[in-house]
Amino acid sequence: MSYNIEKIKLNNNIYMPSIGFGTSMVVGEECAKIVKKAIEVGYRHIDTASAYKNEKEIGKALAESDVNRKDLFITSKVWKDSMGFDNTIRSFENTLLDLGLEYIDLFLIHWPKNNDEKLNIETWQALEKLYKEGKARAIGVSNFLEHHLKIILDNCEIKPAVDQIEFHPGLMREDTRKICKENDIIVEAWSPLGKGKMLKNELLIETAKKYNKSVAQLCLKWCLQNDVIPLPKSENEIRMKENLDLFDFQISDEDISLINSMGYFDGSDMDPNSFN
Ligand code: NDP
Q1: What is the pLDDT of residues 214-245, one digit of tens each?
Q2: Helices marked H in the chain — which ranges?
Q3: pTM to 2 decimals?
Q4: Residues flanking ligand 1, CB < 6 Å
């Protein structure tokens, strides 16, 4: 089955599939199997990070896949302990080696370092170098809130293309999305299902029934209709497929507003202002 996954244009004119496959907490041989299955099922956008300790296994899945490299969109991230100009370049080279790739589609700073603007800027400058050398087709950040982004925007030569943040019903991060919109930065949603916690919310359960869709599908479509790219993770083939089957229905404006106005329900409790 083909899912007609739309593509979205980033601010440097490259295209990214509008749904990605999350891979955190998926490691070892199992990871290679799961990512291979995800590609087989139809995912073309894979999200990893050096911190997930699974880049080698993802590299194995990519090498064994029949899909052309140019049809895949691979994201990775530099972890907190490898920030700074030289460390970031070294970390990127390891990522590339582990993934067995010649370039990465999107490379992100995983978390901002709080109270260390210099380190965030130097790390960004390393990403700019990698971009200019063609080793990363696009560069961006993750978990950067409005004030973290302002520092990068005031000091950068190349604007971030993406900010990957925790985003799901009840956690919309309006200020961060506003500055992203103003600067043509695409927002990606990590934990778009709130690590599965959203599936227990009564409002979401009732709304999903109206569309004959699952709560997971409602959450992912809700991300897309808010112009946010979801990155769901599933180790189960049926749920992998379910999470791609989003392009044959539309949530009404009224229901989008209802979900948008939902209060905080649950989440990771990882605050970018204090997660050091
Ligand atoms: P998700 O919100 O994607 O939820 C994953 C959980 O939901 C799993 O337990 C999964 O179980 C379950 N699930 C998935 N699909 C369905 C479905 N259709 N029906 C019922 N249950 C379902 O959580 P993650 O935290 O994994 O976030 C997604 C990705 O975002 C990560 O894998 C990672 O790539 C990225 N991320 C980035 C962060 C950052 O700091 N930049 C931080 C955290 C995540 P099962 O596997 O059994 O289907």
Answers
A1: 999 999 999 999 999 999 999 999 999 999 99
A2: 28-41, 55-64, 85-99, 117-132, 146-155, 174-182, 202-210, 215-225, 237-242, 253-260
A3: 0.98
A4: 22-24, 47, 110, 142-143, 164, 190-196, 199, 214, 216, 231-236, 239, 242-243
